[in-house]
Write a structure and sequence with these properties.
The protein is α+β, with helices and mostly antiparallel strands. The protein is built from six helices and seven strands; from the N terminus they run E-H-H-H-E-E-E-H-E-H-E-E-H. The protein is globular and about 40 Å long.
Length: 167
């Protein structure tokens, strides 16, 4: 598998971010993205994500394979939790598991977090892998008027399921 590199979002061409965020398959998984994602949205998006780094010392990354931007994600503060997000271009969905494991190692080993959460829209029904990784459904919440299901992964569960088995 090709080497995946983590960079900061300002290193990505806005054109590439805009293309990703407007891709129909990506938008179908992101109910909070209602309108066409344009250049102004992109500037605001990058600014908000970089502010997380300044305020909390962590935030989302941009993912590259070679010089190709393939998506963004990572961990970020969300409603008092540490939320894990992963948004990949559909051509690179096969890299999700590898990126996911790298993010979890950073969260649990480097940062020493006790748990991370993911927020999935109820329309996301193919979630067997989430349970296999050790996430447990905790509750349904509302975010900006949209329902999401909150799943939590505890550090000790992640260590058993992912890291000590060569994950």
């Amino acid at each position: 598998m090709e080497n995946i590199e983590f960079k900061r979002l300002p290193e990505v061409s806005p054109v590439d971010i805009i293309e990703l965020m407007n891709h129909p398959k990506v938008r179908a998984q992101m109910p909070l993205t209602k309108d066409n994602f344009d250049e102004n949205d992109c500037v605001e998006f990058i600014s908000k994500k970089e502010a997380l780094w300044k305020e909390h010392g962590f935030g989302p990354w941009a993912f590259f394979i070679g010089t190709r931007f393939i998506g963004w994600g990572g961990i970020q503060p969300e409603m008092g939790e540490v939320d894990l997000a992963l948004v990949l271009h559909p051509n690179y969905w096969g890299f999700g598991k590898s990126i996911f494991h790298i993010i979890l190692k950073k969260a649990f080993e480097d940062m020493g977090l006790d748990s991370v959460v993911i927020l999935l829209p109820p329309t996301r029904t193919r979630i067997r892998a989430i349970y296999q990784l050790g996430f447990r459904k905790e509750k349904t919440i509302e975010l900006n008027g949209e329902p999401f299901i909150l799943f939590r992964l505890q550090s000790d569960v992640a260590q058993k399921k992912l890291f000590f088995k060569g994950g």
